[in-house]
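Fig. S4 source data, part A: sequence.
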Amino acid sequence: MSRLCGQAGFLLGQTAVKARLRLFLHGCSCYSTSQARLGVLQRVNDKYERFLEQRFPRFYVLYHTLMKGFRLLFEDVKEVRRIKRSLRSNNIHYRELPYRDLERLLLFRQDMFKAIPLAVISLPPFAIGLVFTLMCLFPRQLLFRHFWTPQQQRKFQMIAHVKRSQHQAEVLKNIAWTIPRVSKWPRRTLLLNLYAKVQSGAHPSVSELCAVREVFSGPPLGLQSLKPSHLRSLGSQLPVIVWLPSFLVRRRLTTKALDLLYLDRALGSLGLDQLTDEETRRACDLRGLSPSHLSSSQCREWLHQWTQFSAQVKDSEPSLLLHSMAVLTLNNPPVSK
């Protein structure tokens, strides 16, 4: 692997020079109405890719994935710029966007959070070879979905959901430890029944979740009342750095919960029947459910239950929404290790 990465770093240096030449030629073509230069450039590019595919087939897969990733990223950047122009021109908050625009913006922010460290590492001159080597060795940690092969996407999604299911079990345990601290007996009984139902392998209903909402609005299960370990188990379900100080984790969890809540409201306005199968699976994944062992109809059925529940959640109840990500997904078909 290290030998492959070394070759990759060397070849990527050549690729960088080639890319600069391509940009220069493309810039020159802007001053000419002739399409001949673009045709020559395309033929050179095709020959270069065939050379890589024949001489370095493993590297060609990485190269092809990288080029495709940059193309998808460029498309995302253009779309996000369009969305931000729309926000400024209409003078609205980003949470008021339509569903697909809001989802794209949130996913882009999540991707950029991972891309920034890699961009910082690549700033020094001649660091591109080192960066590419790190990308080869640590793709799950340093890259995001645009720069993964289909096999890596399936593998990394499986790893993520195995870890998430472990943290969901921790969330349920934390709820159990908190039950004796619930002061009012009727609320304690309802929460105990909910815990027992999930623990037995059953799925709670929307009405059962809403019946215990007051427990999550203040002590002992409101975000301001949770212990650091409880906050970390909640944050591990989302792209949140859980080892920050507790007040920062609470702030990030509140922001993430509200983003998800407004995304659900935008989805309610759009309608579940308007989503493609791919969008439905992505929506389930974003809300903590692994779609890999579920059919499209099962994903839609679960998403329908989730949106029914989230439609009743208020802005002041982020803790209820975050805990429900674990409660509503824990007993779905487990992810095989």
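Fig. S4 source data, part B ends here. The chain has two domains: 2-69+114-148, 152-327.
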